């Protein structure tokens, strides 16, 4: 078996505001396996500034993985516990190689185009007029669940949410907010109470990760359900996962396979969560369509009825062309073709 990798820069159509600054480009890595006339593709969606594997030796690690591909998936997954996005790329590539078509990882009604996956419409940070415009567009496009990134100007964001609620009730539009750790522990509870008055569904990561006691206290007392996101990053060990869930007891956890060790790492979190009655959903983390496709197909097979966070495919000008499309608030696998030209030109 031959393995190779290449880096690729995804260009945003318009700069996207996050709590980690405004993103213009997103770096990613593709992994290709070849055996006889078969190929397998995977994406190692390293997220600079967010991933636990944002390390200077990342590329040399990928090179090492390619040179040791004969060790097989299980051994390589174990050997790369410190590199969750490489674990995920390997899972995808081995599965892709084993399948009849390299992009059909999990045959299902989703891949057949018969069923879509409900997703949240994502509203990026920006000034209030821009956020308001995005909300109107999402509602117009048929989303019934909207996720807003907040934490820039809380008073104005509250006004905006209240305005949406004056036109749309909780049963019309589910509103989720993502604070990406913007609140300080001493102000967080007040903010949660004010947000809860607007009948929101949940808030992601109200305070920064790594403050387990403060987060546990918020989760116990909050009137608004709390979802952990960044909190899960960098926790690879199963006992440590269980300890976090038991200590914090959040209402939900959010699984980003590129950041938490792929299908296997995410499955460990889901099993731990379900034991404790904790809910969960899956989101992409700005992967190209190669990674998004893998996440979406896997997610469909989990049969979780909640809206997932898989609406990130259309953000880039130079994405790998794929059959994935968002319509009426769902992600669909259409009969459009994959275009492998970019992948082939990368000399993987
Ligand atoms: O949740 C979604 O709808 C998409 C995922 C998303 O917003 C995201 C994407 C990349 C990095 C961080 C985040 C985030 O949830 O903050």
Q: Which keywords apply here?
A:
single chain, 348 residues, alpha/beta, Enolase-like, domain 1, TIM Barrel, 2 domains, seven-stranded parallel sheet, three-stranded antiparallel sheet, 11 helices, binds 2-succinylbenzoate
Characterization of this structure:
This protein has 348 residues and is α/β, with parallel strands linked by helices. Helix content is 35%, strand content 22%. The chain is built from 11 helices and 13 strands. It has a 7-stranded parallel beta sheet, with helices on one face. Strands 1-2-3 form a 3-stranded antiparallel beta sheet. Strands 4-13-12 form a 3-stranded antiparallel beta sheet, with helices on one face. Helix 2 (73-79) packs antiparallel against helix 3 (84-98) and helix 8 packs across helix 9. The longest helix is centred in the first third of the chain and has 15 residues, at 84-98. The structure holds 2-succinylbenzoate.
Radius of gyration: 20 Å
The helix/strand order is EEEHHHEEHEHEHEHEHEHEHEEH
Catalogue the ligands: 2-succinylbenzoate
Q: What is the CATH fold-level name of the largest domain?
A: TIM Barrel
Short structural description:
The chain is an alpha/beta fold and 348 residues long.
Please render the helix and strand layout as text.
Elements lengths: L1 E17 L2 E15 L2 E7 L13 H10 L5 H7 L4 H15 L18 E2 L2 E3 L4 H13 L4 E5 L4 H14 L6 E5 L6 H12 L5 E3 L7 H10 L4 E3 L9 H11 L3 E4 L6 H14 L3 E4 L6 H12 L23 E4 L2 E4 L7 H5 L3
Parallel strand pairs: 5-6, 6-7, 7-8, 8-9, 9-10, 10-11
Antiparallel strand pairs: 1-2, 2-3, 4-13, 12-13
Bound molecules: 2-succinylbenzoate (OSB).
The site of 2-succinylbenzoate (OSB) has 13 residues, from loops.
């Amino acid at each position: 078996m031959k393995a190779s990798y290449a880096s690729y820069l995804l260009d945003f159509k318009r700069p996207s505001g996050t709590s980690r600054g405004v993103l213009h480009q997103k770096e990613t890595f593709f992994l290709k396996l070849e055996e006889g006339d078969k190929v397998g593709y995977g994406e190692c969606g390293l997220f600079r500034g967010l991933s636990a594997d944002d390390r200077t030796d990342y590329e040399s690690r990928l090179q090492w993985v390619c040179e040791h591909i004969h060790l097989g998936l299980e051994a390589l997954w174990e050997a790369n516990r410190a590199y969750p996005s490489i674990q995920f790329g390997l899972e995808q590539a081995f599965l892709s190689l084993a399948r009849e078509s390299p992009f059909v990882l999990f045959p299902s009604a989703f891949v057949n185009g018969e069923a879509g996956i409900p997703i949240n419409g994502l509203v990026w940070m920006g000034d209030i007029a821009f956020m308001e415009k995005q909300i109107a567009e999402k509602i117009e496009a048929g989303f019934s669940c909207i996720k807003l990134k907040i934490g820039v100007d809380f008073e104005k964001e509250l006004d905006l949410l209240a305005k949406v609620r004056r036109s749309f009730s909780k049963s019309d539009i589910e509103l989720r907010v993502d604070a990406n750790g913007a609140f300080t522990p001493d102000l967080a509870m007040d903010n949660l109470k004010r947000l809860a008055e607007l009948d929101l569904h949940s808030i992601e990561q109200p305070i920064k990760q790594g403050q387990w006691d403060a987060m546990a206290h918020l989760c116990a007392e909050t009137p608004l359900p709390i979802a952990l996101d960044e909190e899960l990053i960098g926790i690879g060990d199963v006992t440590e996962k269980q300890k976090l869930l038991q200590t914090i007891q959040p209402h939900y956890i959010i699984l980003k396979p590129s950041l938490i060790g792929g299908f296997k790492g995410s499955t460990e979190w889901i099993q731990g969560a379900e034991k404790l009655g904790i809910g969960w959903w899956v989101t992409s983390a700005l992967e190209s369509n190669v990674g998004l496709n893998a996440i979406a197909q896997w997610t469909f097979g989990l049969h979780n009825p909640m809206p997932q966070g898989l609406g990130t495919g259309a953000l880039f000008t130079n994405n790998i062309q794929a059959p994935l499309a968002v319509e009426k608030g769902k992600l669909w696998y259409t009969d459009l073709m994959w275009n492998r030209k970019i992948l082939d030109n990368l000399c993987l």
